[in-house]
Automatic annotation (TrEMBL), chains A, B:
InterPro entries the UniProt entry points to: MADS-box/MEF2_TF, TF_MADSbox, TF_MADSbox_sf
Residue ranges that the Swiss-Prot or TrEMBL entry lists as coiled coil: 93-151
Protein name as it appears in the record: MADS-box domain-containing protein
SMART domains listed in its UniProt record: MADS
Domain MADS-box residue range list: 1-49
Length: 156, 156
DNA sequence: ACATCTATCTTTAGTCT
DNA sequence: TAGACTAAAGATAGATG
């Protein structure tokens, strides 16, 4: 009587879709939970609801945040294979500091680099950035500084 | 012959753990994929490997990034229930701009706020921040500005 | 709408190659 | 180390209350 051949296509019927979503979400979360226990690992799932804009996560928001941060760090490292992220950052900062000492003058380029360094240390932006990302960030900070300066000028 | 009662505890044997991890990870990803199709939603899974530091994600890094960003936005909204995030940001920026025009002088407080606004617009930091997070960010930016200024002074 | 049931489908632990 | 196999365990579609 209970026929089942799940066609893997979008479920048009709202009631059926909602029921399936609820059951399967529960199943997935159970499986993810089991995997973390059986294998002693971290894992998380983020699932958007079809019925409201909320995204459900497993485990709690704290655990999810941790693994997301861990993922973001490592994925960025992977993207910049050509240079070790650690030596890259260390070298960049050391170079910026040297330049500051040598040139002995106000220099926006170094201001930007130092700002980036502070943000990296603080964790506001990922601890590792590849060259392209760093360049984007530099351009953004430079733009900000210019805007702030022009606004200040405008008011003087 | 094939006896199975899965005890839900850590699998001590390395070989068995690896085999189970591989099988179950595949299963979870399949289930998540099916859920997204059946219900027409976004979902992702992040799974740390027990054998190297890499975190595997489903779907690709691009899709994962999107849903993470969506999650981070909404979760932060939820945390600052007391005030709508949109009106909060809009109000804060408008106020800062008003102050700039009225006081007609260089003012670090506004510089900080404008910098935050730029970062918010750019997506470098989450689009929504609650009061505590905004305060932390303000303190950080202020500290950065002071450090940069003192370094510039030191060199003049 | 939700809870329970259960026949059937799907996953997977243990085993072998 | 990685597939393939298979029977038991587990998940769930559709039905019913």
């Amino acid at each position: 009587m209970t026929r089942k051949k799940v066609k893997h296509v979008y479920i048009a019927d709202v009631t059926a879709r909602k029921a399936t979503f609820k059951k399967r979400k529960k199943g997935i979360i159970k499986k993810v939970n089991e995997l973390t226990i059986l294998c002693g690992i971290q894992a998380c799932a983020l699932i958007a609801s079809p019925f409201d804009s909320k995204i459900e996560v497993w485990p709690d928001s704290e655990g999810t945040r941790h693994i997301i941060e861990r993922y973001q760090s490592t994925s960025i490292i992977d993207r910049s294979k050509n240079v070790s992220q650690e030596s890259f950052i260390v070298h960049r900062v050391a170079k910026a500091q040297d330049q500051v000492k040598k040139k002995h003058r106000e220099n926006r380029e170094k201001e930007v680099t130092l700002t980036i360094f502070q943000y990296l240390k603080s964790g506001i932006i990922p601890q590792q950035l590849n060259f392209e990302e760093l360049k984007d960030l530099e351009r953004l900070i430079e733009k900000n500084i210019k805007q702030v300066e022009s606004r200040i000028e405008e008011l003087s």
